[in-house]
Design a protein that fits this description.
132 residues, 2,3-Dihydroxybiphenyl 1,2-Dioxygenase, domain 1, 4-stranded mixed beta sheet, 8 strands, 20% helix, 34% strand
């Protein structure tokens, strides 16, 4: 059986509006749906190309900070279709004032990593074609 495609990603954040605004500044306007339940609120962001990211605030996580060394999310990787696209995302992050590292050129990929408002690493990743 073929593995399924990742449908969406939902992140726990410290400020719902700040995070929703951040991802819309980065990727453009999205359709936003709001949900809430006992002790939590969520905004689901859906872009025309099908990308879906949810951001959720939980009452009992106030004061927590993201830590990639703990169980959970280490980083979020967004695939791009070329090395030039990785460099284009560097320019976009620069224009938006998003701090990021250098473009890393590894044996298997070209990648640049920034961070969202809660410090969750986001990377733009182009996988190099296999060497034959």
């Amino acid at each position: 059986m073929k593995p399924p495609v990742l449908h969406h990603l939902t992140l726990t954040v410290s400020d719902l509006t700040r995070s929703a605004d951040f991802y819309q500044q980065l990727f453009g306007p999205a359709e936003v749906l709001t949900r809430e339940g006992p002790g939590w609120q969520r905004r689901r962001l859906l872009w025309p190309d099908g990308l879906m990211i949810g951001v959720t605030v939980f009452e009992d996580s106030a004061g927590d900070a993201f830590d990639p060394s703990r169980i959970g999310v280490d980083h979020v990787g967004f695939g791009v279709d070329s090395a030039a696209a990785v460099r284009d995302w560097v320019q976009t992050m620069d224009q938006l004032g998003i701090e990021h590292g250098p473009v890393e050129d590894t044996a298997h990929a070209l990648v640049v990593t920034g961070r969202d408002p809660d410090g969750i690493p986001i990377e733009f990743f182009w996988a190099k074609p296999p060497v034959t």
